[in-house]
Fold this sequence. Notes:
GO terms for molecular function: 4 iron, 4 sulfur cluster binding; formate dehydrogenase (NAD+) activity; molybdenum ion binding; molybdopterin cofactor binding. It contains 32 helices and 32 strands. Strands 4-3-16-15-14-5 form a six-stranded mixed β-sheet, covered by helices on one side. Strands 28-30-29-32-23-31 form a six-stranded mixed β-sheet. A five-stranded parallel β-sheet has the order 10-7-6-12-13. The two termini are 47 Å apart. It binds ligand MGD (2 copies) and molybdenum atom.
Amino acid sequence: xxxxxxxxxxxxxxxxxxxxxxxxxxxxxxxxxxxxxxxxxxxxxxxxxxxxxxxxxxxxxxxxxxxxxxxxxxxxxxxxxxxxxxxxxxxxxxxxxxxxxxxxxxxxxxxxxxxxxxxxxxxxxxxxxxxxxxxxxxxxxxxxxxxxxxxxxxxxxxxxxxxxxxxxxxxxxxxxxxxxxxxxxxxxxxxxxxxxxxxxxxxxxxxxxxxxxxxxxxxxxxxxxxxxxxxxxxxxxxxxxxxxxxxxxxxxxxxxxxxxxxxxxxxxxxxxxxxxxxxxxxxxxxxxxxxxxxxxxxxxxxxxxxxxxxxxxxxxxxxxxxxxxxxxxxxxxxxxxxxxxxxxxxxxxxxxxxxxxxxxxxxxxxxxxxxxxxxxxxxxxxxxxxxxxxxxxxxxxxxxxxxxxxxxxxxxxxxxxxxxxxxxxxxxxxxxxxxxxxxxxxxxxxxxxxxxxxxxxxxxxxxxxxxxxxxxxxxxxxxxxxxxxxxxxxxxxxxxxxxxxxxxxxxxxxxxxxxxxxxxxxxxxxxxxxxxxxxxxxxxxxxxxxxxxxxxxxxxxxxxxxxxxxxxxxxxxxxxxxxxxxxxxxxxxxxxxxxxxxxxxxxxxxxxxxxxxxxxxxxxxxxxxxxxxxxxxxxxxxxxxxxxxxxxxxxxxxxxxxxxxxxxxxxxxxxxxxxxxxxxxxxxxxxxxxxxxxxxxxxxxxxxxxxxxxxxxxxxxxxxxxxxxxxxxxxxxxxxxxxxxxxxxxxxxxxxxxxxxxxx
Length: 760
Ligand SMILES: Nc1nc2c(c(=O)[nH]1)N[C@H]1C(S)=C(S)[C@@H](COP(=O)(O)OP(=O)(O)OC[C@H]3O[C@@H](n4cnc5c(=O)[nH]c(N)nc54)[C@H](O)[C@@H]3O)O[C@H]1N2
Ligand SMILES: Nc1nc2c(c(=O)[nH]1)N[C@H]1C(S)=C(S)[C@@H](COP(=O)(O)OP(=O)(O)OC[C@H]3O[C@@H](n4cnc5c(=O)[nH]c(N)nc54)[C@H](O)[C@@H]3O)O[C@H]1N2
Ligand SMILES: [Mo]
């Protein structure tokens, strides 16, 4: 095995020497197999494989090492030399494993054989693919389609995802919730409503031309570290960056590029944010309203003095609706209301507004800090309001930049993993496959969870993910999950969702993205769509960890063949043998997005699906971009009260969602544990806590349910008063399933009402 010291570390992007020791630590625990350095060299380059960590775009003019600290960790973690073979179950029962941590479960290594749950021995036992597929199909045939959910986490590539959606519809249901239901669903619904696009509008050219970024609730240092390079380049050419985030996130404060030997040697850092505004959790509506108010006041003053207007009046007239009502609200809302709700001073907001007004081209970047709120869609609409005031959408160097999560989460939506029937080209599916697709909407993940509670949902298939750990209401979910008739999980590693098996349960182990996918016509490539709507081919080159693994595509097709009555248009075996045929089908289903798909598969930087809002074509109800008049000044759904806090659930720098690589959140200085709650020092003093006190958080959602998480150590932290922070997924026990965005139902994981109490 290569040593970490052999890593091209001086070139591996991500912040300074710390990122190298972060990788080293994961390498020590996961023990990647020989050849992983070669794998890292191929990461995110044409002809290589596309990292299955985050969805940050892969540039056309890539670097020698186009991976970051966390992408490297992800690759090492997947390419571990550890194996979780069927023999593992000789020593462990399912019940016993429930006491294991998420980290330890995945550390058992790659799954190597299909497994069936044996209730009598309380263990999974090895089974054959035939038994598994036939067994699953037999149970599905006895259930009604509306009782079955086909979940997908954003990992699986476009080809397998397209057929997974088709399989569910051939079976008779649109129950196709996806991980984005817990993530950027707020964008899919909220952004679409106001600018007609369910995805971001910017591309690389805009990043290169902009002169200002406004960051709201996105943490690039941890969650999209390759973004730090264009940000540094931007800073080098004088671009200004203004950040709104309750926490001071290191990646938004300063950065040392490991690709810059001088900076590495001298420790010279680039300051990222010119202004950093630590607003209250849920305070964005007020903060952005304050920015807009300052812009409008400046425009009034400019008009009075006969200077050029600050607003882009021509754009507003031609392209938008709702402007007059919105500016009335800006004028009528007092600074005292704004500053109270935002937790920021008028001076701070005016300073930020000055940068906005004096920049020609502004990009609005956002992530979970805007989407995961009870009024997440209002947050996004407010950011759009700000951008529209100066025509900052649909022109070079400007636009909306939601940063997506899983590597192909956006693409899965593009090719039909969606619970809403209206998003599906059903006529084309009917012609292509000779069947009547279901026209009723299926379940969103929130409906699916509620359906499990009421027993309307009787079986779950999961194409990847760790749903039990990712959803709210974790405790109730575990019981409900085990109470189903069937659970089937296509997985690479063992995780907690496997430990609450339904009456019939299977784990189907699949190939990872970096592995050779050998089929009848030879090795296959797959493809994914990134956050800029660019489609990239991806070819694995590593030997799979076990000869028994199947590709996600082969698994979906095998299930299709066993479940769906024969029909000459359904060529499951041929599709498994040649993924190019599936890409042809995708092109015929979505001709505007995928023209010349197979020919353009390996375009450097990907090929672009285009985006009407990028060209100022607004596919909204009115045909215009919409100014939204906010009906409240924050994005939460509860009143402030004595002793009630707003809890943010966070990702550490040592995890990918529910996959916990280790216990080092180096950027926040939290080492060796995840059982913490971050609290403002004045709040601690007022509540009588000192550093290290053991506390419990208790849900304060005002319903009957008791939700409590004990064993947490209090850490004094630079966080606004009234706001607490803890880690996801540990804190998910505290979230009510009813606590979600009004419009899109995205769980409101960023301001959960809680109380804090001493833990006995
Ligand atoms: N290494 C790594 N990479 C990842 C992931 C991972 O877990 N690990 N997850 C992937 C996935 S699926 C996703 S969706 C993305 C998530 O990436 P992000 O969108 O960055 O998500 P989070 O880290 O959950 O939260 C983002 C930020 O929101 C801030 N915040 C919280 N509440 C508020 C608020 O009310 N207002 C504002 N303005 N800010 C707030 C938090 O302090 C935090 O810095 O990352 C993807 N990439
Ligand atoms: N409180 C709180 N809850 C949250 C969030 C939050 O910020 N706070 N974030 C939400 C967000 S943004 C998201 S996206 C969800 C994530 O929810 P999920 O997508 O369901 O969860 P992951 O942790 O990404 O899934 C990890 C598992 O995926 C499997 N896996 C890994 N690679 C592959 C592969 O290539 N193929 C297959 N088939 N399986 C694979 C492994 O078995 C691994 O254990 O969680 C949501 N939940
Ligand atoms: Mo996500």
